[in-house]
Amino acid sequence: MADLNEPMELSDGLRMPRIGFGTWRLTDESAPAAVAAALEDGYRLIDTAELYKNEKGVGEGVRASGLREEVVVQSKVWNDHHGTEEPRRALERSLELLGLDRIDVYLVHWPAPAQDLYVDTWRALAEAREEGLVASIGVSNFLPAHIERLIAETGVAPALNQIELHPYFNQAALRDWHAEKGIAVQAWGPLGQRSGSLMDEPVLREVSEAHGKDAGQVILRWHLQHGTVPVPKSSNPERIRSNLEVFDFELSDAEMEAIDGLDTGVRQGMDPETVN
Ligand SMILES: NC(=O)c1ccc[n+]([C@@H]2O[C@H](COP(=O)([O-])OP(=O)(O)OC[C@H]3O[C@@H](n4cnc5c(N)ncnc54)[C@H](OP(=O)(O)O)[C@@H]3O)[C@@H](O)[C@H]2O)c1
Question: Would you say the CB of residue 24 lies under 6 angstroms from ligand 1?
């Protein structure tokens, strides 16, 4: 297993923290305090998006921390800004809202295949990277066929793909595919909180008790040991902190396999083929 105390090096050289802080459902009002708390606790990756309408608040939290140069700030272009010109304008708006002169990682939020514009969008992101407006570019919710097409038509591979991934939907085959391609995987919805009661699963209770950790920490540790980068969101200071306390214990192979066994193969979120 890689040294989980060290950041993961992406194919383009960016050093990606092993865990990030999600901000979906935080607002411009609630994000500054939550982001400040997260950075104070030690998070060094903050995930936002044009869609979340909180980039102003996220940027405030990052700038107030005095840690800007240590933090990987990640945002995403939304589905109504695919094309040749629009992604660049969306990126400039995000930079302005964040109050930063560089976004570290910029992602295409969904492939939106019915629009058939994601290759143009990808070219626009590659140009923005050439100009230094973003350090690293990637995608989110892309399936292998979408990524193959990006590579075939532009010659530029994404450094990472952020996808729905948690023990109820563990995406084993997709993780293997990304590993073969050298594309990092980030996990959204990492705690599997949208449906069902993952945290109440007996196997998680048992493993939690065995390590003196809570179910959220066990799930996040499971991600780290699978080499995926989870971006849990919380607006609760105690959970923000506890979600980061996952570097002082290790799951055994048997425990990893038991948690793998919770997979249902069913998404909790939307399907990349149909979101447009
Ligand atoms: N690329 C995409 O399409 C996409 C889609 C969805 C999400 N995302 C990103 O991924 C991030 C995470 O996904 P998510 O917010 O959907 O789901 P999540 O992080 O798995 O779950 C967040 C929910 O779990 C609760 N929670 C957090 N820590 C907990 C703990 N230790 N124990 C129990 N409950 C806990 C939070 O409530 P409290 O706030 O009350 O703690 C919140 O209701 C988002 O914030 C966003 O940045 C990306």
Answer: yes
Q: What is the residue extent of each domain of the chain?
A: 8-195+228-235
8-195+228-235: CATH architecture: Alpha-Beta Barrel (3.20)
Active-site residues, by number, are: 52
**Pairing mode of beta strands 160-164, 134-140:** parallel
Q: What is the pLDDT of residues 77-124, one digit of tens each?
A: 999 999 999 999 999 999 999 999 999 999 999 999 999 999 999 999
Picking from 240, 212, 267, 178, the residue whose alpha carbon sits closest to that of residue 23 is: 240
Q: What is the whole-number distance in angstroms between the Cα of residue 44 and the centre of ligand 1? A: 17
- 156 Cα: distance to centroid of ligand 1 (angstroms): 30
